[in-house]
Amino acid sequence: MGNSKSGTPVTFDKPLHVAVLMGGWANERPVSLMSGGGVADALESRGHRVTRIDMGRDVALKLAEAKPDVVFNALHGVPGEDGTVQGMLDLMGLAYTHSGLATSVIAIDKQLTKQALVPHGIPMPGGRIVTREELYERDPLPRPYVLKPVNEGSSVGVAIVTADSNVGNPISPDAKGPWQEFAELLAEPFIKGRELTAAVLDGPEGPRALGVTELVVANGFYDYENKYTAGRTEHIFPAKLPAEITALCEAYAVKAHQVLGCHGTSRTDFRWDEEAGEDGLFVLETNTQPGMTPLSLVPEQAAACGISYADLVEMLVAEALRVHGLKQGGTHGAADPA
Length: 338
What we know:
About 30% of the residues lie in helices and about 20% in strands. By secondary structure, the chain is of the alpha+beta class.
């Protein structure tokens, strides 16, 4: 699908009142504030009325007072991405962007994601959940291996444990790492190779992959700092890959989007060991709330496919209204393809 245009701009019967949820208290708060600010600016540029809400414990009260037509969920991490906010919005009867409650609960949990996707033929690394106490006794896997929180996004708290890691063997409780912050971690074998990602966008004809980006990091790996610090990571789009690997990435991304029940947009991340060909491609995770910052990959891929940032935002709003209409047993007439 590569550089083909993968979405049609939408028009609305009238300007909408959109509440943009952003911020919150997760590790990804700064990223969410950037995403939400960009979304709000784009909606205002299209003539929509926007209420910006930096989410606190009084978020339901603020939404009830605002009475928006639709909520743009620009939150990242817990509780905006794990089903908590989605359940609240469902109870309030509000239309909202991105995936619903059940999808969010599964997709943010890396172990549940494996249980959902692997039986459908989507390859993911093996591994298991370990406690920090286990790590202090012995390595759960042969080195090198990866440790990551089960319920965090944006590569927060990811560590690669190698034979020459300065963490001790076994890992020392005093060594800096995610084991100091999280009681349980997912241990996976380290997959050497290239970092790839594919965005999926819903449209009138169903979900479509926008293409594949390769992420080339100057130092280390594609962690939180490298993702959101300008100049740390080179984005190569379209990725210079064999045609069959590009097609496989796009197919796996769309299938993950469908199996998990994603709405609006998602982004699936991969590692590819090119020495192993197609057998060396593994899905790492599917992100149901991809970033909307200047460095974010979904807007970047959309732009390369001819979809402006403001068009992308409006497409996600239109999809939210469509899904909400289906939940209510009908259709919502606020948006139509141009």
